[in-house]
Design brief:
The protein is mainly alpha-helical. The protein is globular and about 70 Å long. The protein is built from 22 helices and twelve strands. The strands form six sheets. It has a two-stranded antiparallel sheet. A two-stranded antiparallel sheet has the order 2-3. A hairpin with a 2-residue loop joins strand 2 and strand 3. Helix 9 packs parallel to helix 17 and helix 11 packs antiparallel against helix 17.
């Protein structure tokens, strides 16, 4: 039988992604003699089919002038930037580029996600054709189940309740409803139950560690499946998602209990396998995000990301510096990159504690010792400040001039709009003026899941489930307090307390800890604002920077408002593409975007 895997009478997704979009992943001419058995009959060929999905994983930095900063971490002079659009509450334009792009010419989660889900379903429907060892069959099925769950979860978390597509759709199945029940759960939580079901099975099937990490680095593992199961349950139990599922806008303790138990299992596995998993030493913290040694960005803390063996050569070296890091690099004349940068605002800088665990105070703005010194060590690992030299300490002309009137701070679109520059993805030594070995060997990646988050998921979920930060989940080895302190103390920071230290309660401390740990990294801070329903309190609040003179005269330091933030009720969810909501009545638009 000739290959008919790509049947033109089938839709590529629920939302009628055109056939041309499907063809790129399995377009075999009608005259071809390749059969379905050729594609799915051997482990080698079937794995090649699965490998297409890895390339559909999105990276929040995978576009020009695009960042993962949806939560107000940064600001830019350019209205094209994610930061500008997010702070303005413009969630229609925010989807014009970047991770959540839904444009036909973009490679964001909307189109990539539905395409990946269909590939996974076609693969699962053809598992019986695979002639391979039991271990090989388990690996194929585990990856397909994980990806079906993962891409549903990414769309669900941003847009809200969606159908769960767990089979290959035909042309008569394009009217599946957004809202439904499953396992006595409704809407968002009903979809989560499908996701969790697939992730449980994926974790049973996938290896804890793949053989030959040089070849298989970046592949999905049991740990990845457990981590995403924990995150899915945590989100489902959060106030916004609980309310969106027909309940009260409060944490659901049962979901939190389930999240804690899964996260606890993952942590225990990691600690039992320290050569394969663990929090990396803080001296190597930036290697989680970038390297300058021409090596793939992947550590034993990394559980998920668009990298590993499938990295594209076009994303390397100077081209990467010029393109994907445009949103970071200020002052094109000095550093290169043709930038339209986003500068970190004062608001997140205030969230980094002092070295002894107390909160930052506004009066410290005028103290040259306390303003940028004597802080949580993660502050300087995340943020460049005035007088820092991101290129070479021996060359004064490369120092950042972020004081008022400084060359890095000129009032132009290609210069920083704030006095703080992201450091996380810009390792020391990289510039294209002139180009050098560090830049030519640069690699960057945004981890979509790392072990540090699993510790923080566990801490948050266990505290919410039990009301006691000194408690342990069933089968876990750590208390909620011990888990969060693992992350803090890895950075060389002081431990916190069961009452949240200077923050006053454990929940507030955990949310702040997540913001600090994941600053300018993926979208966790944006999800946290939404799932805890704190966005409304941010509406019409000031987004700030700090002005000062070249000599750091204490009295010259003053805060300046960049803009007023917009966060309305409708900003808790992204709007669906309007045309998709007009196909049938059972797929309504999100509130406020009609």
């Amino acid at each position: 039988m000739r290959n008919n895997i790509l049947i033109y009478s089938l839709v590529c997704s629920l939302f009628l992604i055109n056939v041309g979009g499907c063809k790129e992943y399995l377009d075999i001419p009608s005259e071809s003699t390749v059969t379905e058995k050729d594609v799915f009959g051997t482990y080698f060929n079937f794995q090649g089919y699965v490998d297409q999905i890895y390339k559909l994983i999105c990276d929040p930095l995978d576009d020009n002038v695009v960042s993962p900063n949806y939560a107000g971490e940064t600001q830019s002079a350019g209205s094209i930037s994610i930061a500008f659009r997010a702070l303005s509450g413009d969630y229609v334009s925010i989807q014009g580029r970047g991770y959540f792009s839904n444009g036909s010419n973009q490679q964001g989660m909307w189109l990539q996600g539905w395409k990946a889900i269909r590939i996974a379903n076609v693969g699962l429907a053809n598992l019986e054709q695979l002639v391979a060892s039991e271990e090989e069959k388990r690996k194929i099925e585990g990856q397909l189940l994980f990806f079906r769950a993962f891409f549903h979860f990414e769309i669900l978390g941003a847009w809200g309740s969606i159908p769960y597509i767990n089979h290959v759709l035909d042309a008569n199945e394009i009217t599946l409803p957004r809202f439904y029940e499953y396992k006595e759960k409704r809407d968002y939580q009903a979809c989560t139950e499908y996701i969790v079901e697939d992730l449980i099975r994926a974790a049973e099937l996938l290896p804890l560690v793949w053989e030959d990490p040089t070849i298989n680095m970046g592949r999905i593992t049991k740990m990845t499946a457990l981590a995403y199961q924990a995150r899915a349950l945590l989100y489902a139990g959060s106030p916004l998602m609980n309310e969106f599922s027909g309940n009260s806008p409060v944490p659901d303790k049962e979901y939190m209990r389930r999240a804690a138990e899964v996260a606890g299992t993952a942590i225990k596995l990691a600690e039992e396998n320290p050569s394969d998993y663990g929090l990396i030493d803080f001296n190597n913290y930036t290697s989680l995000f970038a390297t300058t040694n021409n090596r793939v960005v992947w550590t034993k803390e990394t559980l998920m990301g668009r990298n590993g063996w499938f990295i594209r050569s076009a994303e390397s070296g100077g081209a990467l510096f010029n393109n994907r890091l445009k949103y970071i690099i200020p002052d094109n004349a000095t550093y290169g990159s043709n930038s339209q940068p986003e500068g970190i605002t004062q608001n997140p800088v205030d969230r980094f504690e002092m070295a002894h665990g107390t909160l930052y105070k506004i009066e410290y703005d005028q103290d040259n010792n306390l303003r940028w010194g004597y802080r949580d060590p993660r502050f300087r690992a995340n943020v460049y400040v005035d007088r820092d030299n991101p290129v070479n300490d021996t060359k004064a002309n490369y120092r950042l001039e972020l004081f008022s009137g400084g060359k890095t701070m000129l009032a132009k679109q290609s210069f920083s709009q704030t006095c703080y520059v992201p450091h996380k993805f810009w390792p020391k030594g990289c510039t294209t003026k002139p180009s050098n070995a560090a830049t030519n060997n640069l690699r960057v990646m945004t981890p979509l899941m790392r072990l540090a988050e699993v510790y923080l998921i566990y801490a948050e979920a266990q505290n919410e489930a039990s009301g006691n930060a000194n408690s342990k989940a069933n089968g876990a080895t750590l208390t909620a307090l011990e888990a969060v302190n693992k992350v803090r103390m890895r950075a060389g920071h002081v431990p916190t307390t069961a009452t949240g230290g200077a923050h006053g309660d454990f929940r507030t401390m955990i949310i702040n800890e997540r913001f600090v740990e994941f600053l300018c990294e993926a979208m966790q801070p944006w999800y946290d604002i939404r799932r805890w329903k704190t966005g409304e309190a941010l509406n019409n609040t000031s987004v700030l920077t700090l002005d000062f003179d070249k000599d750091w005269t204490p009295a010259s330091f003053s805060r300046r408002e960049l803009l007023k933030r917009t966060f309305e009720l409708r900003n808790y969810w992204l709007p669906f593409p309007q045309a998709q909501t007009q196909i049938y009545s059972d797929f309504p638009q999100n509130p406020g975007w009609e």
